Amino acid sequence: MIELKDIKKIYQLGHNKIEALGGVSLKINRGEMLAVMGPSGSGKSTLLHILGCLDLPESGQYLLEDTDITNLSDKELSRIRNEHFGFVFQAYNLLPELKAWENVALPMVINHVKKAERKERAVALLHKVGLKERLNHFPNQLSGGEQQRVAIARALANDPDLILGDEPTGNLSTVQSDEILEMLCQLNEEGVTVVLVTHDSNVGAKAKRLVTLQDGLLVRDVPIEKRHSAEYITTLLQAAN
Ligand SMILES: Nc1ncnc2c1ncn2[C@@H]1O[C@H](COP(=O)(O)OP(=O)(O)OP(=O)(O)O)[C@@H](O)[C@H]1O
Ligand SMILES: [Mg+2]
Q1: Interval 120-172: pLDDT, tens
Q2: Is the CB of 241 inside a 6 Å radius of any atom of ligand 1?
Q3: How far is CA 182 from CA 51, 120, 178, in A?
Q4: What is the pTM of this model?
Q5: Which domains does the chain have, with CATH numbers?
Q6: How much helix, strand and coil, in percent to the nearest 5, is found in the chain?
Q7: What is the per-residue pLDDT across 7-21, written as a single tens digit (0 to 9) for each?
Q8: Which atom of ligand 1 is least distant from the CA of 42?
């Protein structure tokens, strides 16, 4: 589905150049559930942004199916983001002036879905994430876990192939975090490919594959099995340091 070849990303801050990714190659197949872990500053968010076509690399190749996305215009990139990807961030990023269902419907506006159909689908998605009683609530009237569920419903609005999460459980309590994780696992069971950037070994343990970054390089890529615990993931991470 996705193939990254020798991806480099350099940030220029004044006279300083920071190499956030120093040549990362990675293949992601349809149906995978992948956790990306590693120390703070190792390039995880940078990698996720590039995977989600929110940012372009300095060099390297990014093949989505057979299209090299590094050659596309901004307009084509935003079409690809809209059609293929759903994003879930740590800070939910809901629009405060929109009700829950309107937040979920927003990506469909961009995709030119008809108004009646937008509402119907937004309501159905909020049912799916267990929020049928919260359709007309504004974000500040919802708990953190509920806001993240709205964000997941919004990520599903255009029926994405791939969900990209950057610390999606980072702001949540253990109980809420488990619920969100359960939901993401369920979506993966339904065939959606999931990539999660996380510091949380519990999240890592739910994935089927663990990729570890260090100093902008991919230093480990291993399968995770159901029998593996969060402690096992922690041990793996420590071994990388
Ligand atoms: N917009 C930017 N401008 C300049 N440097 C940046 C920018 N974004 C990230 N960096 C630098 O690139 C490196 C990788 O950052 P990145 O955000 O990908 O790390 P991360 O692994 O997600 O860290 P964390 O776990 O703390 O979120 C860091 O050294 C960071 O300081
Ligand atoms: Mg980050």
Answers
A1: 999 999 999 999 999 999 999 999 999 999 999 999 999 999 999 999 999 88
A2: no
A3: 23, 25, 6
A4: 0.94
A5: 2-240 (3.40.50.300)
A6: 40, 25, 30
A7: 999 999 899 999 999
A8: 21
